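Researcher: Following up on the earlier apo prediction. This time include the ligand. It's adenosine-5'-triphosphate, with the SMILES given after the sequence.
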Amino acid sequence: MLIQLHNAGKRFNRDWIFRKVNTAFVSGNAYAITGPNGSGKSTLLQVIAAALQINEGGIEWQLQKQKGLKGIDEEEVHSHIAICAPYLEVIEEMTATEFLQFHASFKPLLPQMRIAEIINIVGLQKAANKQIRFYSSGMKQRIKLAQAIFADVPILLLDEPCTNLDASGYELYHQLIEKYCRHKLIVVSSNDINEYDFCGERLSILDYK
Ligand SMILES: Nc1ncnc2c1ncn2[C@@H]1O[C@H](COP(=O)(O)OP(=O)(O)OP(=O)(O)O)[C@@H](O)[C@H]1O
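Model: Understood. Below is the ligand-bound prediction.
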């Protein structure tokens, strides 16, 4: 997977959030987008996810095929991406099992993974059949992470992935990235070093103002 931005710029009304972003995101690497609150990290992540359109420049998404890279349409990008972000709501009426089944009906799970096993791995076995609306905020974050990390797609986008997690949650997060996401293209948007310490590539949004 290759995502390339050419002189990409995004504004809301008259305020430019970033301009002249020239960068490539490549499979197998992990990237951190850093910057203070309100600087535009989530906005750039949503541009990469094709959830927001840029106002200048270009962006290309290319998928690895047997015969090399093949461009994909903007409308198709979402099917190759899994995302965990504070603004993505969980379906509160569902149980963890139902929620993961629902997601798996759109995007397959990693090969050989079963839903009960995933729920065990993220430490929610006792709450597997409880409606998510009765979960604590840390438990909700664990199921959101599970939904994204165990999806069999080449791009994993993580916006503040350890929000509400305790120390064991941070540890779990690092284990999951290490064990299940090595081959993926990972982009983390965060200003907490503990969320992006494994990212070899770093991009400060303040360099694009
Ligand atoms: N839909 C929108 N319409 C207008 N302005 C917006 C919109 N979405 C975001 N913004 C503005 O764009 C700027 C960047 O917001 P963004 O959420 O990308 O920042 P961030 O770096 O992710 O912040 P945080 O660290 O607080 O999550 C902010 O000034 C925000 O108010």
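Model: The chain has one domain: 2-208.
Researcher: Noted. I'll compare it with the apo version next.
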